[in-house]
Structure formats: structure tokens, C-alpha cells
Amino acid sequence: MTKKIAICWFRQDLRLYDNKALFEASKNENILPIYILDDENSKKYKIGSASRLWLHYSLKSLKKSLGGKLSVYSGNPEEILVNILNRHEVEAIYWNRCYEPWRIKRDSKIKTHLKNLEIQVNTYNSSLLWEPWNIKKDDGTPYKVFTPFYRKGCLNAQEPSIPLSKPDRANYLFDKDQIGVDELNLLPRVPWGKKLKTHWDIGEEGAHRRFDQFIEEGLSLYKEGRNIPAKPYVSRLSPHLHFGEISSNQLWHSVRSIGDNKNIEHFCSELGWREFSYSQLFNNPRLPEKNLQSKFDFFPWNENETFLKAWQKGNTGIPMVDAGMRELWQTGYMHNRVRMIVGSFLVKNLRLHWHHGERWFWDTLVDADLANNSASWQWIAGCGADAAPYFRIFNPIMQGQKFDPNGDYVRQYIPEIAALPNKYLFNPWEASEDILSEASIELGSTYPKPIVDLKQSRELALSAFQSLKQLDNKNLNKKK
Ligand code: FAD
To answer: Per the confidence metrics, is the pTM higher than 0.85?
Structure first.
């Protein structure tokens, strides 16, 4: 290539519509669209297995939309970009900003390097409704509580930008030295991925089909319905949003154009929770590993590999927990209500460190997102900003009875107990031998006995929490 070109570096914005970097890049005559898999700088936060599968298909889909002109590389982006610059006459580079601390660090280094080489660097926000540094309290510090963050900070800030159309005229170039999507080796070697993939319609067009279906089936019942895992009242857009196949701007403006009611408001406020997670990560770069409330550094966590394995595989003997963990394994997704139930069970009833949950979710969720995942686990564990108080421990039996009243969700994921009457579906160990044998269940053989006693483990969790409170008092006394 001897033509002057502009690079459009796709990252977590795998779409053509409402893509600010692509839109601006397309004002140049020749554009080289690229994607770089960066497993070098990400280190501990290397994309997990389920997300890699998603990425594979999403890149294929984006490449198709670009008429095959997506050049793909793997390695350290700084070196790859310099290599491209050495081979082509590059005038400018465009990208949409990412907010993971390791990416911020990497990108600012690349930006300086490229500027020194007199390459124009243009970066944009195309994944958040508001830049995290723009939503601050009156005193200039970040919000720590969601409601004022959203109501006072976000809703009083500038309206999120109107979605852009896709570039109508662009000359996309292709780099013959790229390696191709298949060579990224993103697909798992085990058959698990094949089945998982059948649950999703990956790519920008799939994201819009999903959104349209949610508007038809879910939005009008969202506020109350979003808690019922067996119903189609949530959008299941999280992986599409994470990979940027659809933007939160598009969702925000589309739902608001329908009208103004409690369901639309509530859906927008959930997008607000996503913003809140990003704000927390931006303002606390160590959010994925460090307790926001440092007293939790002294929490007496258990270490128990057997408990952890049982939780991961959905074999705890507590149906609502197992159904969630099996949904995750089979589909790469778990309903939000159930994420809270399995999370609470892990950190409170099993008293295993939230890091174990965060890591497992990171590897198995198709929507694994550093901001949302870390902020949510800290919330569940009670050590985060605006967190669920530690002493609020979800009871998986009552949660099941309330949010899966007909047992549809549990029966779908735990067929071996499907024949139980609803009364014992969430607590099979309380059923009589007759009822169990009528349902062809032998506890400990066809389905596990509970690995912990819910009541006893709750008490133990509360007393462990009490020990932290004493720590608080000691510190308080010292200060006095
Ligand atoms: P909808 O209810 O349709 O909401 C629309 C969008 O709003 C979601 O796609 C998501 O982007 C955002 N949203 C909704 N609820 C939340 C929330 N509580 N916090 C932040 N954003 C929210 N979400 C992820 O995207 N990635 C994760 O890795 C992740 N890990 C989580 C771990 C735990 C322990 C918990 C309790 C929650 C986690 N969440 C995570 C948040 C939430 O569960 C998912 O965003 C939601 O279930 C996605 O389903 P949906 O798209 O149908 O949501």
C-alpha cells in the first residue's frame, strides 16, 4: 500500500452504527480497519474462555460487515502499530476509549509514542453514556452511592449523544500481513462452546434483533418482571454491550423515544448501574482485586476446594444456586437475580472469598466485564461502594419461592428433581422419603445433599461479620 491511510482500531466497539471512531475515520479517503488481540498487556485480565468464543464470532461478523476488510493481529499493540506504520503511509489513527486500568495505561503510552512519530491520534467515547470523569459531586469527588450518582450526577449532566449512522462512504483497505480471525485461536478446544453458542445471535445485527425482541416481549413488564429468571423480561444484551455490538447510547435513545414510563425509566437506570460500575473502576483502578472497604481485608474467609468445585459445577444441593451455576455453564449467562443468589451463597454461606466468584464468572460469562463484574462482586460481598450490607444474606429457598414460583427455572436446569412438587423444589432435603422416591430422587446419589446447612452457615457468616465490626470499634476507640 502506498496510499495515505487512516487506521480505525476496533476494540470493544465491534459495530458500524454509532461508532464515533469509525464515523470520524471515514472522513479520510482510505481506512484500514484493524483489531488486535492483546493478551500481553492484559495479563491477569486476559479475556476469559466464554468471552473469547463470543469475540471469535463477533469479529467474524464485523469482518463480514466490512466486506472482509478487517485486518486482525495478535500481540502487543504498540509493536503491531509501529510495524504497520513502517509498512504503510499512515496519517492518523482513530479509536474509541476503553476504561480498564491496564488499557488506559497502555493506550496513553501508545498515544504518546504515535504523537512523537507525528501521527494524528483521535480518541472518542463510544461505549458509555457519560465519561466517568464528568460525573462528580459538587465538591469534585466521585460519588460513592448509586442513587445520587445517577439522579443528581447523570440525569443532570449533558444528554447522552444522539447515535450516529454508519459511514455511508468508506474505502476500506486490507493488510496482507494480518493473520485472520481463525488464527487468533479464540475457540475452546472442548465441545462445551458449541452448545453455548446456540443460545446466542452474535454480532451487530444479532444485537439489534435481540433488542427488538426485548422491546416487544420484555420492556413493557421490565420493572417487576426483571426479577423472574424464567421469563423473557430482561434484555440479555449484556454481552452485546460489552463487545460494543450495540451502544448504550442507542439503547438509551431508542427506549426513550418510545415514551416515558416506569419500565423505561427502570431500564435506563440499569444502564446507569453500568455507568456506576465504570465510575467505580475508573476512580479505584484496583477495584478488581482490592476491597473498597479495607476492613474486609481482615475477614476470616474459608479455603475449601471441595465447596468451590461444587459451587462452580452447580452441585451444591441447593437447587436455586445449582440452577444458576448450570445456566452459566450451559449458556455463558446468568440472570441478575440469580447472580445475586449464587454470589451471596458463595461469600456468605460458604464464606469463600469473592475473588473466587469473580474469577469463575470472568472465565465463564459471555458478558464478563471488568467494571461490572468487580463492582458487582464487591457489592455482593458487602465490601464495595453502596454495597448490600454483609448481614443481608439471601435465602435461596425463599428467593426461589418468590421469584421462580412455578419452578420453571429450576426444573429447566435441574431436570433430575423436576418431578418434585413445588413445595420441595427449592429444599428437596426437607421432603419425606416417600415424596423423594415418587419423584425418583435419591439424595446424595441422583442429586447432592446440601453441602452446608443454610441456617447454621448463615449464623457463622454473621458472627464472622461481627468480628469485623469489633475491628471497627477498636479503630474507632484508637481515633478517640
Ligand atoms: P438488563 O436487565 O436487560 O439490563 C440492561 C443492561 O444494563 C445490562 O445489559 C447491563 O449492561 C446493565 N445492567 C443491568 N443490571 C446491572 C447491574 N446490576 N450492574 C451493572 N450493569 C447492569 N454485568 C455484566 O455486564 N458483566 C459482568 O461481568 C457482570 N457480573 C456480575 C456479577 C455479579 C455477582 C452480579 C450480581 C452482577 C453482575 N453483572 C454483570 C450485572 C448484571 O447481572 C448483568 O449486567 C445483567 O444480568 C445482564 O443481563 P441483561 O442484559 O439481561 O440485563
So the answer is: yes
